[in-house]
Amino acid sequence: MTLKFGVVGTGAIGREHIDRITNKLSGGKIVAVTDVNQESAKQTVEMYQLDAVVYPDDQALIADENVDVVVVTSWGPAHEATVVAAVEAGKYVFCEKPLATTAEGCMRIVEAEMKQGKKLVQVGFMRRYDNGYVQLKQAIDNHEIGEPLMIRAAHRNPTVGENYVTEMAVVDTLIHEIDVLHWLVNDDYKSVQVVFPRKTKYSHEKLQDPQLFTIETVGGIVMSVEVFVNCKYGYDIQCEVIGEDGVAKLPEYSSIVMRKDEKLSTSILNDWKYRFMDAYNVEIQDFIDSVTKKGEPQGPTSWDGYIAAVTADACVKAQQTGQKEAIVLNEKPAFYSEKKLQKA
Ligand SMILES: NC(=O)c1ccc[n+]([C@@H]2O[C@H](COP(=O)([O-])OP(=O)(O)OC[C@H]3O[C@@H](n4cnc5c(N)ncnc54)[C@H](O)[C@@H]3O)[C@@H](O)[C@H]2O)c1
Ligand SMILES: O[C@H]1[C@H](O)[C@@H](O)[C@H](O)[C@@H](O)[C@H]1O
Fold it and tell me: Among all ligands shown, which has an atom nearest to the Cα of 277?
């Protein structure tokens, strides 16, 4: 069986996903695309030589009976409306982060999905499919380092655009750590506090950069997460879990070791696309396989999208107040309680 995809948003990651579904993965086909920039949608069809209809908007695409799955890769604020409409139409959804820009918006998606009586939505938190994070999780789950006590993490981008402002360090960037860290240690978040160190000269007026988040879990784990989006030297993701019996660290991205000009060196990547390329492939192949064989996606759920939104709200509040802010979740519905995704 071939799963037929309609893509809403043919920008950077929309095209990446179209390319992987069309040319790298098996079991999926792009049959429809749309973008508020219709030229971009048409160019995408030409660029990847797709046999796909270009629709004027998401509603028309969702209404196409030939579309089994709606891929949501538009701008964050547009996600909620598309996801709710797709779920109400009974379509499967693969939605890039954020699921919605507010916790209330995520809850509306959760409610729409529960009404359909089965899981339809997967959120694009691809780090859960990265081999390094999967190994870290296995080490923790197998008690190889004892109980986790602390996490030290860093999310560094070489540079960001002029319209990237302080809040985006949370909603655009930290959001990946927000999802992956509680999943790693099987715990819930309790509070967050933010400190702004001295600002780099490479930032601009509306962006505090770097930022240091201290997140505590209900179980007492303290996580220190640095977000530094003008670090200049490359795209660098670090994560070290300190446990009672040992320390486990995310492996460095593998690269050849070069001896040259009296130096011993390895390269550092400079773009998220390359750092998580394999994870995106595994993630979407898993989505295709799960929907095709089990009738439900098994990756990060709408509820994970909700957790991320509530946590992000508290982080943004903490940026504004400088105080420790509580992270309070609604009770998890039984509908989402199955823990299926333990390994990719
Ligand atoms: N998982 C990841 O690592 C990752 C990486 C990059 C981006 N993302 C997420 O993916 C989404 C897209 O990011 P991007 O970098 O591709 O952005 P982008 O600006 O390159 O592309 C977004 C596209 O969506 C279109 N669009 C906006 N609103 C629309 C609407 N209502 N209907 C149809 N099309 C619409 C825009 O015209 C644009 O072509 C964002 O939510 C972003 O946070 C996730
Ligand atoms: O800070 C960036 C992250 O490192 C990437 O993984 C993407 O999510 C991108 O959208 C963010 O702007």
Answer: 1
